[in-house]
Specification:
The protein is about 15% helix and about 40% strand. The chain has helices at about 40-45, 70-75; strands at about 5-10, 15-20, 25-30, 35-40, 50-55. It has one domain (about 5-75). About 15% of the residues are buried. The N and C termini lie close together (about 10 Å). It has a five-stranded antiparallel β-sheet with strand order 1-2-3-4-5. The protein has two helices and five strands. With about 80 residues, it is an alpha+beta fold.
Length: about 80
């Protein structure tokens, strides 16, 4: 992963990022579900041209708060911090 930024901290917790090869990554934790979607770029993601690479129920029905370190641990994503 080239970069990742948390864009919302609670209900949902969400992140946007970019892979080393320039693909757009969107990550969300809401209602106990951790979802990671990937697209060729942000515009393609907005147009619904995405691939879900992780969709896992890991928390309670009303869970929607997660910090970045926990998300990285659960998702297996790694990246270099600049």
């Amino acid at each position: 992963m080239k970069k990742i930024v948390q864009t919302c901290t609670i209900s949902p917790s969400q992140w946007e990022g970019e892979t080393d090869d320039g693909q757009f990554v969107y990550i969300r934790y809401r209602f106990g579900d951790l979802t990671i979607e990937i697209a060729d770029n942000k515009e393609a993601w907005s147009d619904g041209k995405l691939r879900v690479i992780l969709d896992e129920h890991i928390g309670g029905r009303y869970d929607g708060e997660m910090d970045t370190s926990r998300m990285l641990e659960l998702s297996g994503i790694s990246f270099l911090v600049n």
